[in-house]
Amino acid sequence: MKSYFFIVNPVAGGGKAKSQVHRIEENFRNSGAEYRVYQTTGPRDAIEAAARAAEEGFDVVVAAGGDGTVNEVLNGLVGSKAALASLHGGKGNDFATAVCMPRDIDQACRALLEGEIRPIDLGKVMDRYFINSVGVGFDAAVALRVNRGVRLFKGVSAYIYAFFETLLSYKWIEMEVDLGSGPISTTPVLVAVGIGQAYGGGMRIVPDAIQDDGLFDVCVFETMPRLALIYHFPKVFGGRLKHLEQAKMFRTSEVKLHLSAVRPLHMEGEILFGDRMHFTIEPKGMRVLFGS
Ligand SMILES: [Mg+2]
Predict the structure, then answer these.
(1) Which of 25, 66, 117, 291 could form a disulfide with 101 if both were Cys (CB 3.0 to 4.6 A apart)?
(2) C-alpha 120 to ligand 1 mean position (Å)
């Protein structure tokens, strides 16, 4: 029987993860499995807690939070034997969705106890690991605005408000994109690099991505008039943005972006800044627990 270490982010999803703790306790108390629950105390705490849990020999470390918590737990686990798992405990739960974890907490606990562990690809950029999807450009500017706080609005409406506010002020950024066959100069709306298919809470930007094929799915979304962007962008939720001629889709094991200025990159709830972004992939580099 596997042992489990839960890393609960008490502020994730406005307290959603914290409210699930008593269900976790009840499900695991009678399961016979060894388990422990830990609540984080601030940013980056989950990285250290995950590393300690792996060192102690726990088989599965569960991110009880959203994608931001998953990313911290992942970065604490890289190089260890422990497997990564995630609950739907935050605002954005794209990784939990990608590994087929049920939304219902009781069903999720059962899935944790019975689920299968298998390795998927591990991405790295600017010294930080990711397990799902990353974006550079307009999408990152929207994420940055949401992260800094949108007054008056919460949840999805905060994203919609930030989308329009960013659209009015955003300056398209020139960059060189090298997908392994030499750099090409372009001024795209965004570049997305994915192991999983979605980011930003269900935006399926690379809807054909396969988690364990050793390759990134890349979307270079070429520029279009702002009004056209308002019309077309919602298609991303259904994975239909890829049908536009502006959406150039690629598969590659290496991506280099050279930006003409320092700009944000959004990675699973984290924002990093840089102008040289070199993405590498470690095929099947991370063991992950699948819900079904
Ligand atoms: Mg892939």
Answers:
(1) 291
(2) 9
As a CATH number, domain 130-283 is 2.60.200.40
Q: CA–CA separation, 240 vs 174, rounded Å?
A: 25
Every domain of the chain and the residues it spans: 4-114, 130-283
For 4-114, CATH gives 3.40.50.10330
Which of 32-46, 99-113, 158-172 is least confident? 158-172
Tokens standing for 89? 């405990």
> What is the pLDDT averaged over residues 250-255?
98
Ligand 1 centroid distance, CA of 22 (Å): 36
Q: What is the helix (H) or strand (E) element at residue 257, kind and residue range?
A: strand 254-267
DSSP per residue over 51-119, as a string? HHHHHTT-SEEEEES-HHHHHHHHHHHTTSSPEEEE-S-SS--HHHHHTT--SSHHHHHHHHHHPEEEE
**End-to-end distance of the chain based on CA atoms, in angstroms?**
18
